[in-house]
Design brief:
Blueprint: H1 29-34, E1 36-38, E2 48-50, E3 60-63, E4 66-69, E5 77-79, E6 86-94, E7 99-106, E8 119-123, H2 147-156, E9 174-180, E10 185-189, E11 192-197, H3 202-209, E12 226-229, E13 236-245, E14 262-266, E15 272-273, E16 290-294, E17 302-307, E18 311-316, E19 323-329, E20 345-350, H4 354-357, E21 359-365, E22 372-379, E23 394-400, E24 411-413, E25 419-422, E26 445-449, E27 478-481, E28 486-491, E29 498-502, E30 508-513, E31 525-526, E32 529-530, E33 547-550, E34 557-558, E35 575-579, E36 585-590, E37 597-603, E38 610-615, E39 621-625, E40 633-638
Parallel strand pairs: 15-19
Antiparallel strand pairs: 1-13, 2-5, 3-4, 4-13, 5-12, 6-9, 6-13, 7-8, 7-12, 9-10, 10-11, 14-40, 16-17, 17-18, 18-19, 20-21, 21-22, 22-23, 24-25, 25-26, 26-27, 28-29, 29-30, 30-33, 31-32, 34-35, 35-36, 36-37, 38-39, 39-40
Length: about 650
């Protein structure tokens, strides 16, 4: 789980070769829609000139879509236009032992561009001898491990380097992303966030004062200026140079996006949850976190809600419903999410033949010192259809978890009758255990098991057509892999397509349609964008997400359901999803023939955080918010004029 638009895309970058079919030095439709602009067209130096000059130095050569500092006499190259709040993305290729830089907010009142503009170092980290590395803000900022990553590593008992080096060697392409904004600035190299800063605040001024640039009165002071590609005397090349301007307050501009005239309304405003108290024994607020909303498929028109604390409730699917009864209470067995935000009861699914066999399945992180994801079978009580047999638990899988985050935990039955289990990469930052591309571990994968059989000493069976059954060293349960943290899974009840939302790390969130044996890229890429400096060792081709959005739009995706109800025809066939952090909700239309997304609609935001989506027997969709009063189950209604 990932407890940490107007959708738009940052430009594609590649480290060596393209992972996605994005033309060099062009905007794709999503980038155009998102407000990005080209700063380099791949053919000319239009829009550029030399520092304190009206022309471009002869040492800059454009060839094969590359802007190359090829010879002496190039000089520092600056944009004709000045930028205030903006995002910049570009690829660079540095020569062996080479040194260059990208400067921003450059003014032309000093002898050199670096007298005013802070410099993002571009460097050969292997053969260079300087103390400042590629992606560092020269003498000001270097990579910092986030506090959440430090905590996760302490819990897991592992340690990764304090300073990231995500660069690829000299001669290969690297990508720089920088956001310069009044609200907050950030720099990432090859998709890995290095640091954040606020230009002009007390910390910034202190760092400038301690640097060699303090003797230049204009250094780091301008709020607006040119972008500069530095000529440091070494060969360096650039391509895919793109910029997106932000509002004067540093926020993303309002983008043209069609809105559906729908609002979220409380679906069960009178509902009271048996045994739930909003104040704990220490007098602190304890919120209700619904993690799964589903039905039993037995014609009873009941809804079942699994909460993160480990209580499952049942109630009539009636807007006037007043009492949510405890169906199953395993709170003593489930890790308390108040201690670790991403642990707890995470998944609930009813057997396709529940009406006959009374079986349902839960996925949770176990309480106790040894972290583990548990997948269990339960049965309903023979005496009461609204009460589960508390003693019926049969543990099918107990999967050790190295970290307290990235547990995944979403479970669904496919149209094939098999149980699918979404797992995260095991946790931490930058996939420290390299699980995402490792088929020898269950982490970072979507599993597929047969709950109707048992084989080879397991409490479940392995479907014979699972894609990696015959691959040496691979876990046979794996159906697809390359996921960071699936949150959540859904099966389209009409088509059988399986949707998996995958939570990103630093820049991207993604929506995938799962294919048998598919490799979805983590952690050699995040969504369809190259990540870090690890090479792709697998022969399985990478599959692009059907949709992705960047972290200026939202920061943690909550996957939803494909709407197949009848109340709201305008949603028919749309995949509903949200962002946990911003509360934004969307409806994505998908063309089944082409496999492409065709339109993304926004829906009015109700609140935060959006925990989960679910559907009833009729295909009507609900979503859940974290609340202290228990009024967190919502549905969509048409907005009144």
């Amino acid at each position: 789980m990932k407890l940490f638009g107007n959708l738009l895309l940052l430009p594609f970058f590649c480290a060596t070769d393209s992972f996605a079919d994005t033309p060099l030095n062009q905007l794709n439709p999503a980038e155009s829609r998102g407000g990005w602009q080209l700063l380099f067209d791949g053919r000319t130096t239009d829009g550029w000139r030399n520092y304190q000059s009206e022309s471009v130095g002869a040492g800059w050569v454009v060839k094969d879509g590359i802007l190359d500092r090829a010879a002496k006499g190039a000089g520092d190259l600056i944009t004709v236009k000045q930028y205030e709040n903006f995002e910049l993305s570009l690829e660079y290729r540095i020569s062996k032992g080479g040194n260059s830089g990208v400067l921003f907010h450059v003014t032309e009142d000093g002898k050199k561009a670096w007298h005013s503009g802070p410099e993002i170092q571009l460097y050969d980290n292997v053969n260079g001898t300087g103390s400042q590395k590629s992606g560092w803000l020269y003498e000001l900022f270097k990579p910092v491990k986030p506090g959440w990553a430090v905590k996760a590593e302490q819990q897991a008992g592992i340690e990764t380097p304090e300073i990231d080096d995500a660069t690829r060697p000299a001669g290969e392409w690297n990508q720089i992303y920088v956001r310069v904004s009044k609200r907050q600035s950030e720099l990432a190299l090859n998709g890995v966030s290095y640091f954040r800063f606020r230009k002009g605040d007390a910390d910034w001024d202190k760092r400038v004062a301690a640097s060699k640039f303090s003797k230049f009165p204009q250094f780091g002071k301008a709020a607006k200026g040119h972008i500069c590609l530095q000529d440091h005397g070494n060969a360096v090349a650039f391509r895919n140079i793109k910029v997106r301007e932000l509002n004067s307050d540093g926020d993303l501009p309002e983008l043209a996006e069609e809105k559906l005239a729908l609002n979220g309304v409380s679906a069960f405003p009178e509902l009271q949850w048996e045994g739930f108290e909003s104040i704990d024994d220490n007098g602190k607020i304890r919120k209700l976190r619904p993690m799964a909303i589903t039905h039993a498929g037995d014609g009873s028109n009941r809804l079942f809600v699994g909460t993160q604390r480990g209580a499952i409730y049942v109630f009539p699917n009636d807007p006037q419903a007043k009492d949510a009864k405890l169906f199953l209470d395993i709170r003593d067995q489930v890790a308390d999410w108040k201690k670790n935000n991403e642990e707890g009861f995470l998944g609930l699914a009813f057997h396709p033949d529940y009406q006959r066999n009374g079986q349902f399945f839960g996925c949770y992180t176990a309480a106790g010192e040894s972290r583990a994801t548990v997948v269990s079978r339960f049965t309903v009580s023979a005496a009461d259809a609204n009460v589960a047999d508390a003693g019926s638990e049969e543990v099918l899988m107990k999967i050790p978890q190295p970290f307290a985050n990235h547990n995944g935990g979403s479970i669904v039955f496919g149209h094939d009758g098999y149980l699918y289990i979404g797992l995260g990469d095991g946790g931490g930052r930058n996939d420290p255990l390299k699980s995402g591309q490792d088929l020898s571990t269950l982490m970072g994968s979507l599993l597929r098991i047969d709950v109707n059989t048992k084989q080879a000493g397991k409490s479940y069976g392995i479907p014979a057509d699972n894609p990696f059954v015959q691959r040496q060293g691979a876990q046979p349960e794996i159906y697809a892999y390359g996921f960071r943290n699936i949150w959540r899974l859904a099966v389209d009840r009409r088509t059988g397509l399986m949707w998996a939302a995958d939570v990103g790390q630093d820049l991207w969130e993604e929506v995938n349609i799962v294919q048998r044996g598919g490799n979805y890229g983590w952690s050699v890429r995040e969504a369809s964008f190259a990540f870090g400096n690890k090479s792709l060792d697998s022969n399985d081709p990478l599959i692009d997400p059907v949709w992705e959005y960047d972290h200026q739009v939202g920061r943690s995706i909550t996957g939803g359901c494909v709407y197949r109800g009848s109340r709201l025809p305008e949603l028919q066939g749309a995949y509903l999803y949200a962002d946990f952090v911003t509360g934004r909700i969307w409806a994505l239309k998908h063309d089944e023939t082409s496999g492409k997304a065709i339109q993304n609609f926004s829906i009015a935001t109700t609140g935060i955080p959006v925990m989960a989506f679910g559907e009833d027997e009729a295909g009507e969709v609900y979503y859940a918010l974290e609340t202290a009063d228990g009024k967190g189950i919502y549905r969509f209604d048409r907005a009144t004029p």
